[in-house]
């Protein structure tokens, strides 16, 4: 439908992924009619196919427009008054009868910062319930814990700008070509501009990213710890360590206590390439080559995402990636840095920075730390002892609590766990049992089906607030039109809910801007200080990177060096780096052993199943799978085999098969592609008719509690 010419252009941010692309939105009155990349933003005008079709999303006629309440198994329209009263009475009932641990909030890295901040404050300081978690647990938790353990602070030291300076790119567990296309384009531009640039890709799949690599290491799923430790061991053996950097800025730890450099080197001996290469499925020579390139390059940048985070050893992998940079001094210089790419638009700013996970409090504080609780109680002006000392339930534990009838009532916002959680059938039992309030933009999502109360949410430019992406950059989305029907922003829903629950004295702000001002002032009391980032500035500038302690501060591109307000007073010509997250100013290199996964192939289950995204689809497809061009581009969900495995299993394209894992069975259709590697079957999770998470294991990292979506052992049979 042609909705007419553009009458005005507005700068905004794409709502989908953590690249956080700046977009220009062409409006005709209240209609979004054109989208293009913002030339002045960090992405320099480049956007991907999903972002370029944001106008189609906003045009969708099938939005949820009124609240609904489930009666006798069917949804019936209700007024906001009826829906909110029922929600309030159910939460009050659970709190009175069963206490704070019987309620929960399950949020999203796509909610605005003001929304996650409000939910977190309301539940932790209003209801004394730490059962606040969300989908970033499935996505970024291992990276967040990894940074915190290594540097003492979450969020990366470097930035996208480092891409323009790097000489070696080490991409591990990242399919940037499909999942962060503008960043991939920036890497390719850098390669074109400098003939010395080398791209190393480590991935069990021969992805489009891998196709462009100078060196591609197709390691077997679940084994990367062997590779990273082996690279460290080569660096140690060949004396590629940066002794000066180590002496000034690094300490070593075995997970329990400090150890010496010599002890660390001894630990690495078990990982000599000759000892581990076979198990990795590559050669010792390849490991040596990659280690040498990493250490000797003028500037090495590591980029990773879910292939590393969504793993039972996710935290150890993150620690060790950081360690590779620390022992070689490939850090805190332009182009030399670790940079974990974020999955969602606001997982960093919205959830990690606001502390909206079960074990966190705002700006890097921990629930389990008494001083941190007291600090937040003071800042939030609630009596000492209000915040419960025990971390709440992480994502899987929250839904497990529903299965076990311990979590009785929950609010789910901006996420679709009935499709996105692993071992899906099990957690759906919990969704069936608990009283669920679901705020959604569409009625037909898998999770909406389990709602007892369904609330219509405003989408994207129907509301206002801030997103914070991968590189600590905060950017604003301005409201450009009213919500459809009776929809309300998640922020308005939360503020209304707070008032109805008698928490009007806690949630005193009424607008996102007032909420932002409270939060940015609170940030002053931390090393995240972004008090200088006002709505006014965000409306004029193309995002600002924190720390940013005053309104005339330009923001901080790289942390821990000159220019970072918290490092400034500690650095000088002789001592250029200061890791202020640690009391001794030293980042920690951990000796982290490899542990064989529970999910390994065997005679009974001879194939690995790995899962993830495709370029044209966003997560569970609720928004992108209804846009015909994007749906057509992705096609229906399939089990994708390498031709060799297809032959061995006697299946061909289009065949119906049954896949069985330790978690259950499901049927699906076969596709064949030589982008897969022998032994590995791929399944994307965007298609609700192909619920791959029915067979994906819910084993998770014991520290970050992030599930391992990447390694499930399966067997297949034709049906
Ligand atoms: P989304 O599709 O992003 O998936 O999983 P989910 O968060 O469950 O869900 C967002 C929902 O919010 C949609 O239903 C959308 O319609 C709704 N929505 C959109 N805008 C708004 C709004 O403004 N307000 C409200 N209230 N609702 C809105 C993502 C999760 O999936 C993540 S983060 C990861 S990293 C995991 N990855 C993964 C994987 O790699 N493999 C497999 N097999 N499963 C995975 N699941 C995880
Ligand atoms: Fe949007 Fe991500 Fe695509 Fe950029 S890369 S346009 S942020 S989906």
From TrEMBL:
Keywords: 4Fe-4S, Iron, Iron-sulfur, Metal-binding, Oxidoreductase, Signal. Its cofactor is [4Fe-4S] cluster. Gene3D superfamilies: 2.40.40.20, 3.40.50.740, ADC-like domains, Dimethylsulfoxide Reductase, domain 2. It comes from Flammeovirga aprica JL-4. This is Molybdopterin-dependent oxidoreductase. PROSITE patterns: 4FE4S_MOW_BIS_MGD, MOLYBDOPTERIN_PROK_1, TAT. Residues 7-62 form the 4Fe-4S Mo/W bis-MGD-type domain. PANTHER family: PERIPLASMIC NITRATE REDUCTASE, RESPIRATORY NITRATE REDUCTASE. It comes from the Bacteria. SUPFAM superfamilies: ADC-like, Formate dehydrogenase/DMSO reductase, domains 1-3.
């Amino acid at each position: 439908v042609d909705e007419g010419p553009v009458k005005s252009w507005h700068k905004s941010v794409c709502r989908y992924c953590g690249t956080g692309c700046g977009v220009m939105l062409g409006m005709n009155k209240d209609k979004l009619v054109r989208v293009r990349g913002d030339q002045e933003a960090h992405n320099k005008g480049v956007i991907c196919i999903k972002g370029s079709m944001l106008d189609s999303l906003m045009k969708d006629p099938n939005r949820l427009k009124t609240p609904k309440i489930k009666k006798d198994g069917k949804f019936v329209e209700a007024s906001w008054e009826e829906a909110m009263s029922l929600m309030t009475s159910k939460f009050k009932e659970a709190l009175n009868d069963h206490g704070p641990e019987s309620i929960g909030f399950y949020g999203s890295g796509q909610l605005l910062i003001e929304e996650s901040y409000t939910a977190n404050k309301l539940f932790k300081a209003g209801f004394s319930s730490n059962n606040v978690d969300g989908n970033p647990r499935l996505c970024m938790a291992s990276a967040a814990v990894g940074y915190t353990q290594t540097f003492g602070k979450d969020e990366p030291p470097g930035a996208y700008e480092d891409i323009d300076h790097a000489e070696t790119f080490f991409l591990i567990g990242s399919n940037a070509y499909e999942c962060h296309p503008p960043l991939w384009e920036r890497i390719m531009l850098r390669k074109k501009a400098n003939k010395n640039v080398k791209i190393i890709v480590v991935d069990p799949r021969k992805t489009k990213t891998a196709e462009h690599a100078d060196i591609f290491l197709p390691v077997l799923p679940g084994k990367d710890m062997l590779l990273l430790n082996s690279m460290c061991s080569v660096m140690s053996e060949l004396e590629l360590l940066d002794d000066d950097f180590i002496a000034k800025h690094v300490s070593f730890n075995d997970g329990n206590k400090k150890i010496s450099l010599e002890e660390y080197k001894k630990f690495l001996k078990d990982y000599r390439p000759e000892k581990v290469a076979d198990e990795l499925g590559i050669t010792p020579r390849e490991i040596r080559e990659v280690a040498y390139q990493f250490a000797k390059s003028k500037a090495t940048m590591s980029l990773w995402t879910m292939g590393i985070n969504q793993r039972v050893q996710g935290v150890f992998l993150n620690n060790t990636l950081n360690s590779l940079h620390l022992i070689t001094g490939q850090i805190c210089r332009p182009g030399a840095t670790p940079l974990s790419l974020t999955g969602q638009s606001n997982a960093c700013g919205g959830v990690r920075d606001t502390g909206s996970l079960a074990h966190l409090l705002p700006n890097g504080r921990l629930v389990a730390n008494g001083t941190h609780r007291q600090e937040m109680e003071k800042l939030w002006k609630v009596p000492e002892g209000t915040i419960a000392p025990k971390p709440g339930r992480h994502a899987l534990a929250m839904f497990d609590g529903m299965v076990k009838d311990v979590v009785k009532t929950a609010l789910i916002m901006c996420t679709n766990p009935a499709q996105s959680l692993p071992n899906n059938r099990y957690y759906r039992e919990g969704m069936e049992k608990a009283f669920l309030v679901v705020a959604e933009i569409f009625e037909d999502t898998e999770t909406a089906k389990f709602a007892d109360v369904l609330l219509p949410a405003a989408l994207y430019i129907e509301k206002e607030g801030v997103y914070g992406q991968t590189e600590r950059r905060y950017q604003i989305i301005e409201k450009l039109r009213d919500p459809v029907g009776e929809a309300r922003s998640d922020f308005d829903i939360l503020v209304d809910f707070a008032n109805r629950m008698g928490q009007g004295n806690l949630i005193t702000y009424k607008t996102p801007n007032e909420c932002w001002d409270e939060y940015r002032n609170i940030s002053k009391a931390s090393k995240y200080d972004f008090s200088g980032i006002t709505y006014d500035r965000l409306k004029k500038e193309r995002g600002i990177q924190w720390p940013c302690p005053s309104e005339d501060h330009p923001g901080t591109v790289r942390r821990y060096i000159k220019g970072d307000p918290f490092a400034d007073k500690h650095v000088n010509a002789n001592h250029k780096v200061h890791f202020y997250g640690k009391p001794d100013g030293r980042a920690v290199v951990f000796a982290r052993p490899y542990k064989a996964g529970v999910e390994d192939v065997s005679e009974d289950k001879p194939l690995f199943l790995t899962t993830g995204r495709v370029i044209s689809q966003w997560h569970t497809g609720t928004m992108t799978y209804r846009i015909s061009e994007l749906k057509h581009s992705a096609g229906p969900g399939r089990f994708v085999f390498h031709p060799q495995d297809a032959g061995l299993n006697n299946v061909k394209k289009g065949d119906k098969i049954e896949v069985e894992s330790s978690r259950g069975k499901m049927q699906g259709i076969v596709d064949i592609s030589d982008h897969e590697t022998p032994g590995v079957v791929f399944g994307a999770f965007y298609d609700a008719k192909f619920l791959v998470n029915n067979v994906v294991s819910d084993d998770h990292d014991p520290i970050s509690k992030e599930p391992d979506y990447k390694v499930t052992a399966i067997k297949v049979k034709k049906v």
